[in-house]
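## tool: complex_structure
## caller: assistant
## args:
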Amino acid sequence: MKAALDIASVLAISAGAFFFLAGTVALLRFPDTLSRLHALTKADNLGLGLVVVGLLPRAGGVSAGLKLLCIWLLALLAGATVSQLIARTVQTRDVRS
Amino acid sequence: MTAPTIFGICAALLVGIGLFGVIISPHPLRKLLAFNLIGSGVFMLLGAVARRGAAAGMGGDPVPQALLITGIVVAFSATALAVALLLRLFNETGSVTLAADARAHPDAGDT
Amino acid sequence: MIAALNIGVAALVLALALFTIVARESFAACVGFLAYGLLLTLVWVQLQGLDVALIEGAVGGGLTGVLVIGAAVRLRSTQAAADAARLGMPARMLAVLLSGGVAAAMAACVLALPDPAPTLAPQVSASMAATGVANPVTAVLLAFRAMDTLLEAIVLVLALIGVWSLAPDRVWGGRPALGYDVDPDGILAYVARILPPIGIVAGIYIFWAGADHPGGKFQGATILAAMWLLAMRAGLTDAPPVDRKWLRLALVAGPAAFFAIGLAGTVTAGAFLAYPDGYAKVLILAIEWALLPSLALTLFLLMAGAPQRMSAP
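## result:
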């Protein structure tokens, strides 16, 4: 049981790391701001979410697990807000120019 | 290669990089950033020293760590004062040059 | 394995530091500096300094990064003049030699550190029971080196006085920071309504937990100041004018209470900032509760900057 949980953790964290890698590659390779923002949200949602899911079996208890989930939700909120603000700035700048 | 050694050498390199930045950056804000790099390098060195002092069941010597907390907050307050100085200089003269022969902005000087 | 992880983190930190120095635009350099500050948090976790990691992430990365990014945006028009004034190659070579020499000297000192390392941890753990706190860093900050913390609180107020003194005469005593016109139905205003309750709970929890776990009043005060900053930037509230009596009283109340407890220590326990037996935990709690609002206010006002406009009469 413990070994199965460990393997599941490693798989989930590796998948999360893969999404972070994909998001970073997209950040460096995509041509314009909006598509880069789109790629970064994948890193935020899926990448961080999978890392948190992988860490949940290793958390010290229910409250620690809840704190991990809180961290993920707060990072989601911050990421979504900032993406929206950047995208709107880019849009108004393009409309003006 | 223990963690204190690795991060001690990293701290030495950070101080070097920061010193380089202070010397060659013409913009005062960049000099301020480089100065903060020197500061964080020194803090990291003290942190490595604190880690080497792990004993009595603690992960690191708590006295240098407490000094570091004080140092980081005081460094921030110094940075805030420096930024306020820069912005005031910009509002008064329209540029942030530190050259002695800079002329005042024609719209400035309304203190 | 762990050494490889540490070397990787150190390499990332150095790469970000180099980027901060060589980036073309000031704005890019400031963003790199903010990322550098956040990455330093990982370094502190590896060095087993969790309280320092928290304060580095909050103040060193977060507050300082936001401060310099704001400055870079306001100073964008000075970029051209700075580019024109770049140093020539001979000066750069000299700078490389000088910095390289200093770095090499420091690295030599690192490699020559004494073994076994001198440490004060045994003395701290032996005397910690009398203070009533279980976090050794908090015990050092508020019991063994309380003088440093008192002077730090006073230095913060002095820095704030310095920032306020940079106001032009016509806005002396006015409100800091430009007014922000933000869409009241936009997402920034929405987040600024959702996040502060969570942030206040998190900040007070980190402050409260600092007695026995990593945390403390500096970390908690930073989160509280950041929540107020968020509300100000979203247009939900405004920075108070700096000549208000209540503001100035609130700023000095914390350090004054700390100082008063220290003076009381000369009478009751024989030395400045000494705690009488059995009262250490109570006095430490009193100092922390007194300092928390003053610290949060000071950090917020340091971020808001010098007065920029007069409030409407």
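## assistant note: The radius of gyration of chain A is 17 Å. The CA atoms of residues 71 and 88 of chain A lie 26 Å apart. Handing back to user.
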